[in-house]
Amino acid sequence: MKKLSRILILGNAGTGKNYRGERLSKAIRIPFYDIDDIIFKEKFTIIRSKPQRSRLARTLAKKRRWICGAFPSAWNSSLAQSSQKIIILTENRIILAYRIITRYFKRKHSQAPEKESLFGLWNLLKFMWHDFRPEGKKGIYFEKIKKKYACKIVLLHAKKEQAAYFAKLAEECKK
Q: How confident is the prediction along the chain (175 residues), in pLDDT tens digits per residue?
């Protein structure tokens, strides 16, 4: 197996993209990038335009080594194209809603709360619930990615399946 140096982790909000990506990054010493840092000028507040996001995604895609946690979108398609492995994380939407709401309240009550609002939480829940349906915008885009990059896609559903795969991947990348 060719040593991986560009890994894209795709999924809906709450699927564990950043959690898994950050741990894999530490294990194999490849920098992790959160798509939110491309989307927002300032975390969860000022949103960059699509051309700005696309340019930043292309810049990241050109780097030699990266792991990125993202959701599928036309403006970040350069990441899918240049990745060596695309890992798609899926989960039941009710579980995702629970995780998103729980994460919101944890952040709000931490010593360094993120700049999130109830309005932002509501929009994220709507985005997660509607756009990621099989017939929703992101669901349709997922299908296109699965067809276009079938040879480099891994689809993971349950938390245990994800944990086992990422542990195995970390070991293989260390070799």
A: 468 899 999 998 889 999 999 999 999 999 999 999 999 887 767 889 999 999 999 999 999 999 999 988 888 899 999 999 999 998 888 998 999 899 888 877 775 556 667 888 888 888 877 776 666 666 777 788 888 999 999 999 888 999 999 999 998 887 7
How far is it, in rounded angstroms, from Cα 67 to Cα 137?
A: 24
Domains delineated in the chain: 6-91+138-174 (3.40.50.300)
The whole-angstrom separation of Cα 128 and Cα 142 is 13
The pair of structure tokens assigned to 148 is 């276009």
Hey, how many other C-beta atoms are within 10 angstroms of the C-beta on 143?
A: 12
